[in-house]
Design goal:
Blueprint lengths: L1 H28 L23 H6 L6 H18 E2 L8 E6 L12 E4 L14 E2 L5 E5 L9 E5 L7 E2 L9 E2 L3 E2 L10 E5 L2 E2 L24 E8 L9 E8 L3 H6 L6 E5 L17 H10 L7 E5 L6 H5 L12 H19 L9 E6 L1 H12 L6 E5 L8 H10 L6 E7 L11 H21 L4 E6 L6 H15 L5
Parallel strand pairs: 2-10, 14-15, 14-16, 16-17, 17-18, 18-19
Antiparallel strand pairs: 1-9, 2-5, 3-6, 4-5, 6-8, 7-11, 12-13, 13-15
Helix pairs in contact: 5-11
């Protein structure tokens, strides 16, 4: 009997351990058959492991899909929270460009042109510098140029703009978001781009001629005169510029009869009457005006094309400090316009001087300088042709302040704009919409100050920011500003 009891006593731990191992194995193989009242591990764990999912696994409970999905979603949300626009970083950012064609050089460097410098293709303030690895870079300090940062790369002119691999122009670029959590304090993110091809790799590329060459032949429809005007600001060669004065059909007969003609001064004169290889198109001012005058759709008028200052164009057309590193020079340019250009035109040609018969206009920043010319000299100019006014370039708040401070407004104005000014897809892109809204707001400003019938805004579907669009809207502009005499 004693031996039996001793045997049971010695076997009890072994049986207990074996039973526990069996129960544990059964629970792992069939977790759904475990005792129902076993609580989840961790306070408030529920079915997802509220305290932590590790406790659930220790207890033999399988982690649910909901746990994995929630964790993945949380991780994604955390990552998204750290993704920011580079232009919003206080330390600034760096852009690096790879040029596989190796056409960029010290004599033909890479530039960046965009909303921040009026799309100037050869702005020396935005010239990239070569690195030892044959790539090019430019550093931007803390960005103060507004919410829009769209751009393209060039080699100094739009004839040498970047192209895609198939030799077609790309859409405007934008900066990708960067992960701020991976940057050390004060570290500038480096954003890399590749330019596959350049404009001079196209089979039909021709070296651009100088649009300001006084001796270059002009291909202009109708009668015109070349006129040299001295005193041009911003470092023009010999401090003078050559203007093109287009004369309407019947001008000579009108002069003999003692007639005077209304006159329209247009800026960016290089692109008005003929296409140069450095620009995508021309305004077709001469062809359009000739056809409309002959058809009796507008009255005969004289049109004066005033060339821009080339690399200094942005500065001379800027009336307000809205772009970083660009000091406004509009007042100097307008002083030259009022003191030198207008008196010369009035002395040499049969043009009217009543401001209600004198117009001024342009595109982009050329439209802006036209408004400022009217503001400073309402006694000279009363009509305005405002195409794609660049009131979103750089800091929009600076432009809004400038508009509100204008003292004098056009007596009559045409405002033209396209729904894809920034070439973004679709037309409903916020930047495209904002550009259109700024043009509509400008027309409302003019109506408030000059009357409801004094202005017209034309919003052209799918039109972008170029000479082709401005040429397409020119007939409407001329008809609104210079209707035929009744």
């Amino acid at each position: 009997m004693k031996r039996f009891l001793l045997t049971i006593f010695l076997m009890t731990p072994i049986i207990a351990v074996a039973s526990l191992m069996y129960y544990f194995a059964l629970g792992v193989a069939n977790p759904d058959k475990q005792i129902a009242h076993v609580p989840r591990v961790g306070a408030g764990a529920g079915t997802t492991g509220g305290a932590n999912a590790i406790g659930e696994l220790i207890a033999g409970h399988k982690a649910t899909g909901e746990t994995r999905e929630a964790a993945a979603e949380a991780k994604a949300n955390e990552a998204a929270a750290d993704m920011v626009k580079p232009e919003s970083l206080p330390q600034g950012f760096v852009i690096v460009v790879d040029d596989p064609s190796k056409l960029a050089s010290l004599t033909s460097p890479i530039y960046i042109a965009g909303t921040f410098n009026g799309w100037s293709a050869g702005d020396t303030k935005f010239k990239l510098t070569p690195q030892s690895d044959m790539r090019w870079r430019i550093e931007f300090p803390k960005w103060t140029g507004g919410s829009e940062f769209n751009f393209k790369f060039t080699r100094g002119s739009w004839e040498l703009e970047e192209l895609k691999e198939d030799l077609t122009p790309p859409t405007n670029r934008a900066l990708p978001l960067v992960d701020a959590s991976k940057l050390a304090p004060g570290e500038k993110p480096v954003i890399e781009f590749t330019v596959p091809r350049w404009g001079d790799q196209k089979p039909d590329y021709k070296k651009p001629e100088d649009a300001n060459d006084s001796y270059a032949p002009k291909q202009i429809t109708g009668d015109y005169r070349r006129m040299q005007v001295a005193g041009a600001p911003f470092g023009q060669a010999n401090a003078q510029r050559e203007l093109t004065v287009w004369l309407p059909p019947g001008y000579e007969a009108g002069v003999k009869a003692g007639k005077k003609f209304p006159v329209l001064y247009l800026f960016d004169g290089q692109n008005l009457f003929q296409k140069h290889s450095g620009v995508p198109d021309e305004w077709r001012v001469d062809e359009t005006a000739s056809e409309m005058i002959k058809a009796g759709k507008i009255e005969p008028l004289v049109i004066v094309g005033i060339p821009n200052a080339g690399a200094a164009r942005i500065r001379e057309y800027m009336p307000v400090k809205a772009l970083p590193n660009v000091e406004p020079g509009a007042s100097e340019f307008i002083a030259w316009l009022a003191d030198e250009v207008v008196p010369r035109v009035q002395s040499l040609f049969a043009v009217e001087s009543d401001p209600s018969r004198v117009g001024v206009g342009g595109s982009s920043l050329g439209a802006v300088i036209a408004l400022e010319a009217i503001n400073q000299h309402p006694e000279l100019f009363g009509l305005a042709l405002l195409e794609s006014p660049a009131l979103r370039a750089g800091n929009p708040d600076a432009w809004n302040t400038w508009l509100k401070q204008l003292q004098h407004w056009p007596k009559r104005a045409f405002v033209g704009v396209g729904t894809r000014e920034l070439e973004k897809e679709p037309a409903t892109d916020p930047d495209n919409v904002a550009y259109v809204q700024s043009a509509i707001a400008l027309q409302a400003f003019i109506s408030t100050h000059s009357g409801l019938q004094a202005s017209k805004v034309m919003v052209q579907p799918d039109a972008v920011h170029n000479e082709t669009a401005w040429a397409n809207r020119l007939p409407d502009a001329l008809q609104f500003l210079f209707p035929p005499a009744k």
